[in-house]
Design brief:
Elements: H1 3-10, H2 17-24, H3 31-47, E1 51-59, E2 61-62, H4 76-79, E3 85-86, H5 89-100, E4 106-110, H6 117-130, E5 136-140, H7 146-155, E6 159-161, H8 176-188, E7 192-194, E8 197-200, H9 206-215, E9 221-228, H10 245-259, E10 264-268, E11 281-287, H11 305-314, E12 318-319
Parallel strand pairs: 1-4, 1-11, 1-12, 4-5, 5-6, 6-7, 7-9, 8-9, 9-10
Antiparallel strand pairs: 2-3
The structure holds iron/sulfur cluster (SF4).
Length: 322
């Protein structure tokens, strides 16, 4: 590994875009590869005090989504006549109440871009009412403006998952400038922004990945993540395949050392190797999911809270309780 980059990592500096690109070129399995994994693991074990975190994400609807992302099972062109639905407010509040009694730290409510903004606020308020005050509530929804960011806060949300996805506007129908505008609205409202480099496929260049890793330097991001693209059958990008677990571990290490997130580092899909190279946080998932074709991802690929806890323990992470 380049001596000056290593010195900056050991001094606790965040990496630049150029340094991230250089490290992403590290050959998998080389001495430098393991050194990089070691440095990322060392950062996380210390920063997160050997504790792993479990978040839960609930998908509220499955509707043909006009943003039409080429990797998503709910995109308009990939729904292919699958049944649409919106989970009832009562059902969602009930699920949230059950989750409040578990050891999850943060609860995310996720929708397609078709979901009504006003209705989402009602769901948020109903869920907030059944959560303990110290549990973070996070929105994962379509783009919005400054006024709506304020409304999310008033409804009881503490944060927002919002990102510029890889090849936004090419592989998705969203505009990069709208994504940035929303992220700025989140920051200006004093909400916590959750960020992720995603969805990573074999065709993405190191430069594209590094651009998203350093974007968090402009925002107060507590939780960073990396996510590989799942090849969902019936979606246009499925034919490009998936990156290897070894490549995801390298990306996870570089993202960890570039962002140096203070609260947690997440990996999607959950993977043991990444828990040894920077990641300490996993999601349990329920309801609809862009990476699944099941109505409820618990019947498909979604991890349960027990799955997440067991994987964390297996890789010698304690599980943080609230
Ligand atoms: S990923 Fe989200 S925005 Fe894109 S098509 Fe799927 S539901 Fe819509």
């Amino acid at each position: 590994m380049d001596h000056s980059i290593k010195a900056r990592i050991e001094a606790g500096e965040k990496l630049s875009r150029e340094e991230a690109v250089q490290l992403l070129e590290t050959p998998v399995g080389s001495r430098e590869y393991y050194e990089l994994l070691y440095l990322a693991n060392q950062y996380s074990r210390k920063a997160f005090e050997e504790k792993g975190l479990i978040f839960a994400q609930m998908g509220l609807d499955m509707q043909p989504c006009g943003v039409n992302c080429k990797f998503c099972s709910m995109a308009k062109d990939s729904m292919c006549g699958k049944e649409s639905f919106i989970r009832s407010l009562e059902e969602v509040a009930e699920e949230a109440k059950a989750l409040a009694d578990t050891d999850i730290q943060d609860l995310f409510l996720m929708t397609t871009a078709q979901f009504s903004q006003e209705l989402f606020l009602e769901y948020g308020k109903a869920v907030r009412a059944v959560l303990p005050p110290d549990m973070r509530l996070v929105a994962n929804i379509a783009d919005f403006d400054a006024e709506y960011a304020q409304k999310l806060k008033e409804a009881g949300f503490t944060g927002v998952y919002h990102i510029c996805r890889l090849r936004e506007g090419i592989d998705t129908g969203a505009k990069l400038e709208d994504r940035v505008r929303t992220m700025n609205a989140v920051k200006n409202a004093g909400l916590e922004l959750y960020y992720c480099v995603e969805p990573i496929g074999p065709e993405h260049t190191n430069e594209e990945l590094a651009d998203e890793m350093v974007r968090v330097h402009d925002y107060p991001v507590g939780v960073m993540a990396v996510m590989k693209r799942t090849a969902v059958p019936g979606t246009p990008l499925a034919e490009k395949g998936e990156i290897s677990a070894a490549r995801l571990a390298l990306i996870c290490a570089v993202a960890t050392l570039t962002a140096r997130p203070p609260r947690a580092m997440c990996v999607h899909e959950p993977g043991e190797l990444c828990l040894m190279t920077g990641a300490n946080q996993l999601y349990a998932e329920l309801g609809s999911n862009p990476r699944d074709t099941e109505k409820d991802t618990r019947d498909g690929r979604g991890f349960s809270i027990d799955d997440a806890r067991n994987m964390l323990k297996k890789m010698q992470w304690g599980v943080k309780s609230r």
